[in-house]
Amino acid sequence: MIKAILIFNNHGKPRLSKFYEHYTEDTEQQIIRETFHLVSKRDENVCNFLEGGMLIGGSDYKLIYRHYATLYFVFCVDSSESELGILDLIQVFVETLDKCFENVCELDLIFHVDKVHNILAEMVMGGMVLETNMNEIITQVDAQNKMEKAETFIFQSTRQDR
Amino acid sequence: MALKIVKGSIDRMFDKNLQDLVRGIRNHKEDEAKYISTCIDEIKQELKQDNIAVKANAVCKLTYLQMLGYDVSWAAFNIVEVMSSSKFTYKRIGYLAASQCFHESTDVIMLTTNQIRKDLSSPNQYDTGVALTGLSCFVTPDLARDLANDIMTLMSHTKPYIRKKAVLIMYKVFLKYPESLRPAFPRLKEKLEDPDPGVQSAAVNVICELARRNPKNYLSLAPLFFKLMTSSTNNWVLIKIIKLFGALTPLEPRLGKKLIEPLTNLIHSTSAMSLLYECVNTVIAVLISLSSGMPNHSASIQLCVQKLRILIEDSDQNLKYLGLLAMSKILKTHPKSVQSHKDLILQCLDDKDESIRLRALDLLYGMVSKKNLMEIVKKLMLHVDKAEGTTYRDELLTKIIDICSQSNYQYITNFEWYISILVELTRLEGTRHGHLIASQMLDVAIRVKAIRVFAVAQMATLLDNAHLLTGNMQRNGICEVLYAAAWICGEFSEHLENPMQTLEAMLRPKVATLPGHIQAVYVQNAAKLFATVLKSQEGNTDSTAAQETSQLMIDRLPLFVQSANLEVQERASCILQLVKYIQKLQQKDVEVAEEVTALFAGELNPVAPKAQKKVPVPEGLDLDAWINEPPSESESEDEQPKAIFAKEEPKHSRPRHTEVDEKELARRREARKQEQANNPFYIKASPSSQKVYQEAPGVEHIPVVQIDLSVPLKVPGLPMSDQYVKLEEERRQKARADKKKKEKKKRKEKHSGRGKKHDSGPESEEDIAPAHQVDIVTEEMPENALPSDDDDKDPNDPHKALDIDLDKPLADSEKLPVRSHRAAEALKSPAEDGETENAASQEPKKKSSKEKREKKKDKDRERKKSKEEKKKKKKHKHEEKEEDLLGGQADESVVQSDETSMVAEPPTSTSAEVSDLDFWLSNAPVPSNTQEAVTVAAAAEAAPEPEAPSGAAPDSEPDEPKDTEMEETKSSKHKKKKQKKEKEEKEKKKKKKHHHHHHHSDGGGEESVQNGTVEEEEPLPPMSNYCLLAENSYIKMMMEDIEQVYDIQGNLQDGSQVVVSVIFENKCDSFLKSMEFNVLDSLNSKLQRPEGSGPHDGLTVPFQLPPGVSNEARFVFTVQSIVMSQKLKGTLTFIVKNEDSSTHEKLDFKLHFTCTSYLITTPCYSDAFAKLLESGDLKGSSVRLEGVNMPFHHLLARICFHHHFSVVERIDSCASMYSRSIQGHHVCLLVKTSGQTVCIDAKCDEPTLLGNVLDEIKQTFSQC
């Protein structure tokens, strides 16, 4: 199970947080801070696994992260997930973002966090991996965006009618 | 009016959207909080408007603010409003917001039930998808209960997109509403074979999560997963399945054996590192589960280690990390294979990555040997000095202590070195582990007698320099070591060089700043020191010195009397008064030293930490009953188990009378006291236990003084461990030299060098003689000690509720709550179905065969229908889907058995599935390879009853014990008819039957293991299934009841395998090693030896025995014919190794394979039993036992226990019993008793076997 997915930048500013278990807002922020603290002090070429976040999990849990340019992608998972598998998943996630936003950069995530959520929802659901095939993910995301566009169009036209 | 509308829409155009909000926040970096609060006010305004678009926009912004840490739960209702919008755009916004901030205690959630249900059944798949995604985050028990059925319906949706989401969310539903698991499970299982890989993967995912927590319930799915594993190409699915197998193998070693090969293939073939890694992990798990005595899988382990080495050597830090992680798992069971990669692991200790260093540290634990311990620890000490963060340093500290103290300090050859390491560690500032160091100091000082002189000297230095340790003690855990130091100096004060100085150090005013518990120890031990000092001073003629000492105490103690700590205060007051009294006496010139010393006389011995907790209540002892004895007796109770463990147990567990009279009690008590008197580990009031140690040659004579000179004690610094490394090197060299000398002249070395007492025998590199005798109380627990703290599961674990037997047929009451009328109707038929099935299993007699056949047809029809439905792709969703569900219970199992055995028989009960599993496991070929499986099965068919008479018999036999629910219900007439019919159903059918057969003997195997359960039911005299094999002054061998793990494996050539457990107990006080177990094979019975060894080679017993220890080894024998009892001659050879010699010893024994031991306790139903007797192919025999003087139920229990029978029926003084042999012979007994005569009528299809079994029974009762 994946317990949480966090994206934050080099300064620890959250860009996306998805917790698959309930925490209060304060705890969530604390977890983000703690995770950032743990992850940010690590060198570039050390391993991507980290044990021992105090707030989340316990001994069974691991932080698996990747660092892309200005962003950290952190997955907090338990022992039922394969470590290397999750690393792949992060890669798929980032590549998907790259496809959907066309050369994704931090700004895309800043201004379109809702879209990032929607893409993530096609990959991970309730803490379990739903889909790992990038093409399939993009197909579904596109189809939904198309639907949304159609609706906005109708919506706008009705608005203009009035 | 129109204007107003225009104005409204213009307003709306100027509303901030999410992007504006984000931009705004970025532009207000200085007063972010203020800006956001105005934004929230705006949002509140927006939420008040009717326009859903505005609301959605507001909610979208709130979701963003929630991420920044703002509580938005106040808008929960608005979120629900947005969720219920008909537009997908808004709906999605609403569900996203809900998934981010709803949780179980959000009260508006209950308003959403109907909305979610509506969305779930929406014609638009994305509406459904969004609802499912959202629900997965905030599902509550109520929602789960109300929506379970809807989601289950979606599991068979036409669109794979919905199916996979529905399947995944079921896991969350199960967690919240465990009752849904059983009804939904069949369909979930079905989804494992969904044509869409995504759905399949989702189903695998869910089942893996479920099985991870409660693996045993999912064992029956193993064949299916195995098939998936061999067929799937999706690495995600493979990884999950392989992980799942890792969880299952500990429960079923046979599964492990089956897995090894395909996993090895995958390891060789895959290019995906993730998959490779998981394969290696699971192979390790398999090897761990097989490690108990099974033939070597050294090739597999070698492969794993090899692959892991490649990972560790990789430049990718991730692989390195994982490699080390997996290595540590191997380490537990196969330390040897890991040790060969020591270089690599030591190298990782220098890695710049902390995670990797930590993992390498874990591995070090298994890397050490006597030879390299010092070197490794030295390296670690260097790291300690270099370590920057306290976490890593603390980790290092604990590891150093772990490594050194493992298995009773096995690898420490020089305890002076170890003490100095500990002392060196005390120099760490700010460590949290002061208490750890302290407990090690105490442990070593108490248990290693020879080190006390040295330890005391070191501790005195520590006390003297306490100010160094307690610099800023408020946050300093290290002052804990003073606790140990004070205690050691006090308790062993006779070794102090200058006790007066230490006494002064302990009474310094600064001590009062230490934590209370340490002060208390200081005070108490100051008193002990005082006693020692007095003793030495009174020896001199000058009495003033002694009086000065008393004065010192009287001056300093009041400081402690004022302590706020109660303990300190109390002790100080007592001791102060005592000293005052002593002073008075001294002034009268009375010699008091002797008496004062007597206050602290006596040796304190170490006791295993949980020894007392683990003491089981001895047989025949009622703790509540009043004992006519002074209460002091209760103390000795604590020690009793040790005696039991040593040798009393076998005797005592078989008392002739359940009630023990007073005399007997007294006698036992006497015996126990005697026992304790001879037990070195028993704490006695008198210091006589010392004798035991003195007998150990030369402990007292170790010239430790020598070292003391080389220790810079006079330097006010602390000692350096490095010196001891050098000293130890010298010592070892010297020992080596001595050894050479010894070769020239025997026994000369006895007087040379220090620490010599152990330096004897061949000094192989691995057993370097330790410099000190470790006096260790092996923490053995009584044999039947209660596992007191195994069960440390979290009671709040939601997964506990999911520990549900999934194989039981579904009961009517269990179906999911259904709302819609139509669905309810559709569900009715499966409910009926379930009911009838239930009825069938509970009251089989009421059912006519006609009904049954009809039902069968019915089922067939249903099955066909459901299959057709599947083909039609389920166009008419509701009705058909419900009906499909109806097929559920029967249908899904059919699907399964279809692949494994191609048999279409309606599986009705657990036994069917389990037997499938058993068959699958016991059968070597892969299930997909049906052709082969069939032939093997056919061959196996013949095996169990090779001499069965022709006619109906061969069929009826295997039938009986198995399908108890169905077959037995019919009269034999009907049955034969049916059998004819069955016969026409080709071989397949036969094979299926055979599963049952197999299953039963297997199930019996388990039963016999749990034989003890019989005892629980009635108050019975205890029985032991251990019998003494042979015994001499060195070793005792006991054999446990023979136990068969495998039944016939499909062909007669293999014969049957039986496993014999032998307990070896070391009775002498020397080390027993290189034990070899050998048996002279007979034509009929052969010891299974590893491949490549000759028929007369012995088997090495895989352990060594330190003094007083016992261990169990298992040996596998192949037995051809089981109708006769057998005696096998065997020998055990071993090397007795003590301090100065090692001798080869031999012990002959006879293994007695009774016929009884080939019987397996097998439950049998009375009607099956009756039919068995009716069938007429059993030969009868009978036996009479005279003078049996025991209650009838004891008699039965004895037969059950010693001869592996089970009671079929008991009426008054008459009982029928049943058992079957490992080769499938039925043995039926009718036991009648009148007075002291017991009459046993017996029937069996193998008269020789029966005769022998009866003889054995007779013998059992003649012995008592």
TrEMBL record, chain A:
A Pfam family per the record: Clat_adaptor_s
Membrane topology: Peripheral membrane protein
GO biological processes: Golgi to vacuole transport; intracellular protein transport
First-listed, main subcellular location of the protein, grouped into a coarse class: membrane
InterPro entries on file: AP_complex_ssu, AP_mu_sigma_su, APS3, Clathrin_sm-chain_CS, Longin-like_dom_sf
Residue ranges of every copy of the AP complex mu/sigma subunit domain listed in the record: 1-147
Gene3D superfamilies linked to this entry: 3.30.450.60
Keywords (A to Z) from UniProt: Cytoplasmic vesicle, Golgi apparatus, Membrane, Protein transport, Transport
Compartment(s) where it occurs, according to its Swiss-Prot or TrEMBL record: Cytoplasmic vesicle membrane; Golgi apparatus
GO cellular component: AP-3 adaptor complex; cytoplasmic vesicle membrane; Golgi apparatus
Similarity section: Belongs to the adaptor complexes small subunit family.
Function statement: Part of the AP-3 complex, an adaptor-related complex which is not clathrin-associated. The complex is associated with the Golgi region as well as more peripheral structures. It facilitates the budding of vesicles from the Golgi membrane and may be directly involved in trafficking to lysosomes. In concert with the BLOC-1 complex, AP-3 is required to target cargos into vesicles assembled at cell bodies for delivery into neurites and nerve terminals.
PANTHER family reported for this sequence: ADAPTOR COMPLEXES SMALL SUBUNIT FAMILY
Name by which UniProt lists this protein: AP complex subunit sigma
Organism per entry: Parambassis ranga
Lineage: Eukaryota, Metazoa, Chordata, Craniata, Vertebrata
Automatic annotation (TrEMBL), chain B:
GO cellular component terms given for this protein: AP-3 adaptor complex; axon cytoplasm; endosome membrane; Golgi membrane; presynaptic endosome; terminal bouton
Species classification: Eukaryota, Metazoa, Chordata, Craniata, Vertebrata
Cellular location(s): Cytoplasm; Golgi apparatus membrane
Organism (species): Parambassis ranga (Indian glassy fish)
The protein, known as: AP-3 complex subunit delta-1
Biased composition (Acidic residues): 777-794
Ranges where the AP-3 complex subunit delta domain occurs: 660-807
Biased composition (Low complexity): 932-955
Family of this protein: Belongs to the adaptor complexes large subunit family.
UniProt-listed Pfam families: Adaptin_N, AP3D1, Mu_AP3
Function noted in UniProt: Part of the AP-3 complex, an adaptor-related complex which is not clathrin-associated. The complex is associated with the Golgi region as well as more peripheral structures. It facilitates the budding of vesicles from the Golgi membrane and may be directly involved in trafficking to lysosomes. Involved in process of CD8+ T-cell and NK cell degranulation. In concert with the BLOC-1 complex, AP-3 is required to target cargos into vesicles assembled at cell bodies for delivery into neurites and nerve terminals.
Record keywords: Acetylation, Coiled coil, Cytoplasm, Golgi apparatus, Membrane, Phosphoprotein, Protein transport, Repeat, Transport
UniProt biased composition (Basic and acidic residues): 639-675, 725-736, 795-825, 857-869, 959-971
Membrane-topology descriptor: Peripheral membrane protein
Tree of life domain: Eukaryota
GO biological process: anterograde synaptic vesicle transport; Golgi to vacuole transport; neurotransmitter receptor transport, postsynaptic endosome to lysosome; protein targeting to vacuole; synaptic vesicle budding from endosome; synaptic vesicle membrane organization
Region annotation (Disordered) ranges: 623-686, 714-916, 930-1020
Feature: compositional bias, Basic residues: 737-757, 847-856, 988-1000
